[in-house]
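REQUEST ID: PR-0412
SUBMITTED BY: lab tech R.K.
PRIORITY: routine
TASK: structure prediction, single protein chain
INPUT:
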Amino acid sequence: MTTTAPEQAPELVAVDGRPTAWQRARGRLDRLEDPVVAWSAAIGLTLLALFLRLWNLGSPKEFEFDETYYAKDAWSLLHHGYVQGYVGDANDKILDGQTDGLWTGDPSMVVHPEVGKWMIAAGEKLFGMDPFGWRVSAAVIGALMVLVMCRLARRLTGSTMLGLVAGLLLSLDGLQFVLSRLALLDIFQAFFMLCGVACIVNDRDWFRARLAGLMPTQETDEYAAGPVVWFRPWLLVGGVVWGLAIGTKWSSALVLAAFGLLVWLWSAGARRSFGVRWAVVKSAFLDGVPAFVHLVAVAAVVYVASWTGWLVHADEYEEHLASSQYTRFVAEGKTCDDDALLDDDRWPAATEADASGLGELRQSLHSLWNYHQDVYTFHAHYLNCSSHTYASKPSGWLLLNRPVGVAADTDIEPGTRGCQAPADSSCIRQVLLIGTPALWWGGCLALVLALVVWVGARDWRFGVAVVGVAATWLPWLLYDDRPIFLFYAVNCLPFVVLAIVLAMGRLIGTGPPGSVRRTAGVVLSGSFVVVVLLNFAWFWPIFTHELLTYDEWRDRIWFSRWI
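STATUS: complete
OUTPUT:
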């Protein structure tokens, strides 16, 4: 972020025709803001992030945590077009290199949409059914997320340097890093949602520029509300990626709703800046309707299209899974001590005669709707009967209250497998899903500042961070009576990072290089980045399944609740 200093500032005056220190610094900053340089730097940082995520990606050679579901579901989608069940010893056989004869042919009751599993399947198609193959798509998406973060933060701050800092901080977070090395769905959801928010922020700038070009020079009754902009390309792209986000996990819909409201308010603010009265009310129709079509309607079409494999094989689901067991579990007033009994109550479409053409499509969509009702009941009610060792209360997510151990190789004896522990001790390898503490704890302070500045100074940029965290975090407080996990908070992470870099921008200010405030701001901001980097390096062994003695491991487990 650079500004022109006052003309009377002595440091601006050249001496003997030579540039001053301020002029040289300004020149370096101007070169950094060059689009080619900005893009090159962001791509370079993305490639570094990709290298770290690909490093030893196939280790450990096992199914880590819920990879046991998604890796096999992805392979089934790829080869059968829909998710089939599998035999009991499928994991061992897959790790031994066998993929044939493991699938039952019956559809499996999957409880998440299919976009993320198709992404995993792409890696398996290219590299095979092994740990590297089912994790590589997550690594690529995790690295691309860094690129989007750089560009979004640059647009919000006006600074290439702060954009690069945002990308670097995102790449140094443990949650984002480990999820980029696992075949889980959350990294894909976080990526698509970040792209969706970036599209909405880009649209804000595009819409204001477009409105300025369409506004008449003299206000008349005809243009009392301003022109209608029916086509908004960034929102159209946003609708596509939001559809992919919801097609990965449903919780993305709540975030879309929150940012959809911001689109309306930002559009109203643009009209108000051109003198439109009652802009919020008028914008509800003039901008709300086109935005709804671009974002919600397009997302809905993309979402339904993502279930094409299911729709093509709807008859399999109607035959094997049409008894609506989860829905009846609640409707019949059952408790956690009861079983969900199956009976002859089936989905309506499953009892109808087979149709053809559009009639068959209607039947398949009807069955898909019934299937969604079952899945919703599973998430909202049936899981209340479950518990999990690594479940964590969402109220403590931002403080990293309860991480998830996704893999562990314990009690490695001294002198075996490289263990150099004392004779009375042993070694351990672990993969722990936990954020980088310095980043998250510093981010909590930055979020408080963001809320104050957004409300007090009405700086819309800080609202992006506040609304983003609120939409990705607060709804989970309604479901804290069922097993949910800390790594869901990876969706909050981009907005935590935005709060941090926006706070850095405010701390540094816009004065000339060398000023006391600017120097102090740069030193403090740079020191925070260094602390995060060192903190990430300290936790690296438990992010990457490296060998540690138990003493070294305990040095990294700072609280008993992290075990």
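NOTES: The chain is about 60% helix and 5% strand.
REVIEWED BY: pending
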